[in-house]
Amino acid sequence: MNPADHALRRVLNDEVHARPPEQLRPPVRLSYLALIPDHDRAADIKALHDLVTRFGAPAPRPDQNHYSADLGAFRIKWERHTEFMRYKFFVSGAETTPFSNPAITAVPAEWLAALPGKVIAAYHAVILSEPAGGVAMEAVADAHFNGNALIGSMTSGGKGLALTDFRIHDDGFGRLVVYDSGMTPRQLGRLVQRIMEIDTYRMMALLAFPLARTLGPQLQQAEQELLAIIDAVQGAKEEDEPLLFDRITKLEAQVEKTRSDTHYRFSAATAYHTLVEQRVDELREQRIEGLQTFREFNERRLSPAMATCRTTSARLEAILERVGRTTMLLSTRVNVTREKQNQQVLKSMDRRATMQLRLQQTVEGLSVAAISYYIVGLVGYAAKGVKASGRDINLDLVTAWSIPIVIGFVAYGLYRFRRSLDKDHDK
């Protein structure tokens, strides 16, 4: 008997087999849609459910992230990713003008119109066997790409030829032509999927580029405000510190909010750019004389935009770090000022304590005199009582002799009482 499986063992193992590419055999037409959802995720499954059940195919499970089925008129493959979902529609057979009758025309038009989400990438592709006489690039450009400059290369160790122009045509779709000269169906499926992913990940990465350009003026304004605060700190007086502290904390809150709002987008752009580079590497391109390769196109167009995004993100982090250091500097200055104020307060308290001690000593002296006065008065009354009983005593003499004795006892009693209070306080 084996030990029990980890709860996620099979889920994690199956993840590496998820979203396998379709096996393609030329000729075949393909339409591809990548959409960013603007609704709850349940609507994605519902749209897919409505389509496949219309053609009698098994319904997808609510927790599925990928689904494929042969619906007769076309095959469908659906995949859900973190930020987008994508549909692929496959139709076997070639057309003289394949982009006039793409695969997506086999999909119900009313279902497409109601499809939730916003398109971020869309392509029509046609996969053909390479003709015996080779491919005439100018003829392909004129026939399929409106004469636009082609981008492409030999791929998969020279067994495939992929051509595109990376343009959005009048129907809202890009175009891709792939010629097969000896690839297996799985190789051909992986090649087409990689090229589609290159464009999708490129577009997802570029979502951060407009944000980076928008942030430029804001970051410049934040830097100018920071410099103004630093200059003001150098010559500031104590009464200026609260205003400066208020300015720096507002600036820090503003920069931190900007960072929080943009951090995910910039991080995602870096991740998508890495995926683009990986997919380009996997093409194993071989240059065709006169054509720009997929790598060259992305390095020339995408890499500068990603450099701008990385620079903007690093600039934002640097401003936030500088603001933090300035805040600490100003906080230290404010703390020093408060320490000085506290020392002055302590000195004032010491003076007050000294005055209270002297006042207390004065009061104690007066208390001794007052208490002694009343006790001596009682002694005088007692002496009068004794004299009234028939004893011959001198009242004035008794009263006079009682004064130093009473004062001594009262003073000693107050001294002992104060000592006992001091001991209790120390405890």
Short description:
Helices cover 59% and strands 13% of the residues.
Structure report:
The protein folds into 3 domains: 20-184, no CATH class; 208-343; 354-422. The protein is 59% helix and 13% strand. The chain has helices at 9-15, 42-54, 109-113, 137-144, 185-206, 208-234, 241-283, 294-388, 395-426; strands at residues 28-36, 66-70, 75-80, 85-92, 118-129, 151-155, 160-164, 174-180. Helix 6 runs antiparallel to helix 7 and helix 7 runs antiparallel to helix 8. The longest helix has 95 residues, at 294-388. The two termini are 70 Å apart.
List keywords for this structure.
eight-stranded mixed β-sheet, single chain, 427 residues, 59% helix, alpha+beta
Computed Rg: 45 Å
Q: What is the straight-line distance between the termini? A: 70 Å
Largest sheet: 8 strands, mixed
Count of folded domains: 3
Quaternary organisation? single chain
Give the overall average pLDDT: 86
* Morphology: elongated
Which structural class fits the helix and strand makeup?
A: alpha+beta
